[in-house]
Amino acid sequence: MGPRMREQENYFNHDADVGVIGRGETIELSFANAAYAMFSLMADISNLHQIHIITFEFEEADDESALIAWLNILLVKAKEHHMIFGDFRLKRENNLWKAIVTGEPWRNDIERGVAVKGATQTMLSVQKVDHSWESRCVVDL
User: Fold this and answer.
1) How many domains are there within the chain?
2) How far, in Å, are 23, 64, 122, 133 from residue 14 at the CA level?
3) What is the value of pTM for the model shown?
């Protein structure tokens, strides 16, 4: 997935919820880093065993709507498979987004953080800043 951002750069405050930020050289990498920030709220994912692979696709033409769809589908897939994800890969082909995510089933020794209910349209932004992409939104805790 590439280098991770420093932790304080991954978030912004918003009332009782929190905003996640993903940055990257491509829109796909910025989405992956936003997902990393979101899942890092739920657990320390830096030491996960990336033993299970989940793949899925979704269609979305609008970049901002794609970010919300991506994050919310990830939450659904994690719950469906009783997993915590730690590596996120995304490839865009026109309006089709192809995802490969890896992680492992929840274990008792994985310290749980906060529960993320979903990604929202609050403070939603996907834009190119200088020579890189920045994707951000508020997640409901």
Assistant:
1) 1
2) 19, 19, 9, 21
3) 0.90
